[in-house]
């Protein structure tokens, strides 16, 4: 039997996390010859995940440059991928999510008449500029895709509404849930002794993340101010905020949350400590996309501090609430979850809508049925 040549392309930490289960599944299946190409759109954060999951890229474009623009990322990735595709001659290229690497990977595949599989297809916020540039990236990728691996029924519905053929759409769940099963350790010890010293059993620890471009400025000031006020009024609440490296984000965080009792501004965490921190915390307040999927699988309520989300399944199932960026609304939502055990349990015990941890298996099976 002739084997299928698959090229897996990714460039950032979130992509690497969500592609890792697929890499493992394809590598152990004798029907495939699988090679991995990283663009290294992000460098250090990507390398962390490669080490955790013991993944050795076959091709490393190493395109990262400090201060890089979206145009520069696109041009360097597209040029580098051309050489890789011409050398390996894959029959299928897999990309994941909505980064600039994803779009350039799909475009490079299209230019070489290679079939494209889009993992985590069909997410839509409804606003082309939020999140930016991710909403455009995933829509542009969809146009070029042959196999849409949608994590949920809602994602499939988005694709059908846009005119994609139903027999090219596969509901798989999200591979981030697969990955979490490998890394969570109830006895995990952090390198940061400050985090180890926190009483997670008796304190209501809020894990805060905020970094989105569209939130920098007044929205982010509102988010941090609301959290500060909740801490002031509730002595059993502590906050951990792994600060994003963006100087503008750090300046806002330091001005509002710096030197604040029971608020811990820490350096960014690698995937392994971050996910284990998420498993120990009480509540997550975030403007991230992937965390909206991961936290519910750990039984943690999520407050999404954005004006819209491309992951409405969490809102609909009750594992997440869309809090927006108004200070008073955020304060109200956080306060309710901190002070009402009933409301907290409603969210913590809601059914996670993002799958059963077997998404990679379903994706590989779908590829085999269509290509063997």
UniProtKB/TrEMBL annotation:
It is an enzyme of class 5 (isomerase). Its EC number is 5.1.3.14. Gene3D superfamilies: Glycogen Phosphorylase B. Keywords: Isomerase. It comes from the Bacteria. It holds the Pfam family Epimerase_2. InterPro entries: UDP_GlcNAc_Epimerase_2_dom, WecB-like. GO terms for molecular function: UDP-N-acetylglucosamine 2-epimerase activity. Residues 24-368 form the UDP-N-acetylglucosamine 2-epimerase domain. Belongs to the UDP-N-acetylglucosamine 2-epimerase family. PANTHER family: UDP-N-ACETYLGLUCOSAMINE 2-EPIMERASE (PTHR43174). NCBIfam families: wecB. This is UDP-N-acetylglucosamine 2-epimerase (non-hydrolyzing). It comes from Sedimentibacter acidaminivorans.
